Amino acid sequence: MPPLRQFGLGFMAGMFIAMGAAASIAFGKGMPNSDPGVSKFAFAAVFPVGLILVVIAGAELITGNFACLIPGFLNRRITLWQLIQNWLIVYAGNFVGSLFFAYFLSFLTDHYIKDPWLAGVQGISEAKVSGGFGAMFLSGIGCNMLVCLAVFMAMAGKTLACKVLVIWFPIQTFV
Fold first, then answer.
1. pTM (predicted TM-score)
2. How many CB atoms lie within 10 A of CB 101?
3. Which of 80, 100, 127, 149 is most buried as measured by Cβ atoms within 10 A of its Cβ?
4. Given CA atoms 49, 55, 59, 63 in this order, what sign does their dihedral have?
């Protein structure tokens, strides 16, 4: 795939994942007086929308590419340079797409300027930076395993409903 197309599809994926995250925050963090388990379940139940959009739209997400391109490399269908190039371009597209969504569709629109959403975003941010590098790194590996599992299962699915279902539960689990 040409690099510009990789970047564009990566940009879309970054936006889609950000959309899923934003919807999770709006829904799950918007019920501060509910039982913490219910709030966490609601947050996790909405987050998979992002990966569903990625898979159904054919966007390029770096976490899925980490696993999906390895077999092509090992079977000599792509070179090491093509593998690394894809990872770098798609990662850049994901990053820029997520920043685009965060800035233009969250920050400038003031969606999270008031509590309970502001407190929810602050709580998520504090949890991400206070866990220590080792714990966060290992959590990231576990999350990526579940994302890759969801992508592999979705590739095997024949219907839209099957793809949605097999993506939903691994992603809800990691959240």
1. 0.89
2. 20
3. 149
4. positive
